[in-house]
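Exam review. A common question shows you a sequence with its C-alpha cells and asks you to describe the fold in words. Practice with the pair below. Do the first one on your own.
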Amino acid sequence: MSTARSFIPMSTAATAPSTAAAAAAAPSSSRSFKIVFRSMQSLVLLVFLIGAVITVTRLILNPRPPAFRLDSLSLSGLPNVSDASSPPPKFDVRIRLTATNPNKKFGVVIGGVNLCLALIPSKCQLRPSSHNNKSSSEHYIGERRHGSFEVKASPSPGRGRRSKRSFQFTVDELLRKGSEVMSVKMDVSVKFMHAYWPSKRGSVVVECKDLRVGLSSTHIGNLKDGGKDCSVRFA
C-alpha cells in the first residue's frame, strides 16, 4: 500500500512538464499557420494582378480591326472614251459603309478614307480623292456597336500620262458586259480609344470584291446585288 501511494505522485509530476510544453507550442503553431496563409494570399493576389496587367496590355497592343460592310455604291458622270484623257468635271462616287466595332473595351474612330476602284478582270483603275460627309471627317463607334457613314469621292488631279492612265475607267468599260464586276479597295485610318489609356492609331485595308454594277442610260452606275461584306486587315 505504501508503495502504491508513493508511485501516484511521481506519475503526476512526470506528465506536468509535457502538458506545459504542448500548451506553449500551440500559439507558435498558430502564428506559423497565419504567416503561411497570408503569404499564400499575397501570392494569389500578385498572380491575379500580373494576369490583369498582361490582359489589359494585350488588349491595348492588339485591338481587333473594325468590320466593314458596303451598303451601297453609286457612280455618276463617268467619262466616255473620247474625253477619258482628262478628269471629268462632274464625276462622282458615293459609297455608304457600315462599320462594326468588335472590341469590348475600346471605342474606334474612323478617320480618312483613300479609295480605289477597279474593274474585273481588266486592270482599269480609278483613284479618286475621297472625303467623308462630315466636316470633322471622323466617325466614333462605341464598344460593340456599329455606325453608318458615307464616303464621297471626286477625281484626283493628275498630269500627263498619269491623268490618262487614271481615267481609262470609262462608260465604255462598264457597258462592255452590261453589268461589270468591280472591286473597291480602301485605306482607312483608325484610332482606338480607352478612358484610361493613350489612344492607338493605325490603318486598315478594306477590300470589297465581286461587286456587280448596273449602268443606266444616263451613265449612272449602282450596286445591283445589295450590300457586301468586306475583308479587313491591318496595313
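Now try the second one, then compare your answer with the model answer below.
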Amino acid sequence: MVSERCKNLDQFQNEFIRKFWNLDEQNRQKITLVTGKHRINQGSRCNYACDLYNRCKYVTGLEEEEIAKYILRHFIDTDNAVVMNQTIHNIDDLMELLKKLDDYTDDQRKSRADNHNRLPNNNRFNPQFNNYNTNRNEITIAITRTTTGIETISIRTTPTPIAT
C-alpha cells in the first residue's frame, strides 16, 4: 500500500504522481489535445474545452497559451467560418470566444424552431414561398498563424436573404 511506503506528504505526492500522472498518462492527454476534435453531439463548446483544459493543464511542458491554441483547433471542423477577429493568448480568451459561438448556435436553433412553428401547415416544408427570414445564417471561422506564432480567429456571419 502507498501509505505504508510514504513517510511524509512529499513522498506520498511523488508516489501518487508516479502511479496516476506518469508520462504515459500525460502522453495520452497530449495526444487527445493535439489530435482531438469537437463534435456537435459532445455538448457545448465551453464545457468540452474546459474539460480538456483541466485534463491537460498539468501536462509537463505545456503552457496555457499552447493548450488554448490546440483546443481551438478542435473546433475547425464544426465552426470553420467567422465575424470578429480574435487573438487567443490564454484559456480565458478561448472560453470567451467559445461562449459567443455557443450562444450564437443556441439563438439560431431557437430562431429556426420559432420560425418553423409559425409556418402554415401547407407551407411548412416549402419556405421559399413564405415571406419571412429563416435566420439560416452562415458562420465562417478562419484561423491564421502569424510569423510571431500568434493565432487569429476571424468570425463572419452572412445572413440569408428574405425569400419573396
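Model answer, second protein: The chain is about 50% helix and 10% strand. The helical segments are 2-5, 9-20, 23-35, 45-56, 64-73, 91-118. Full marks require stating both points clearly.
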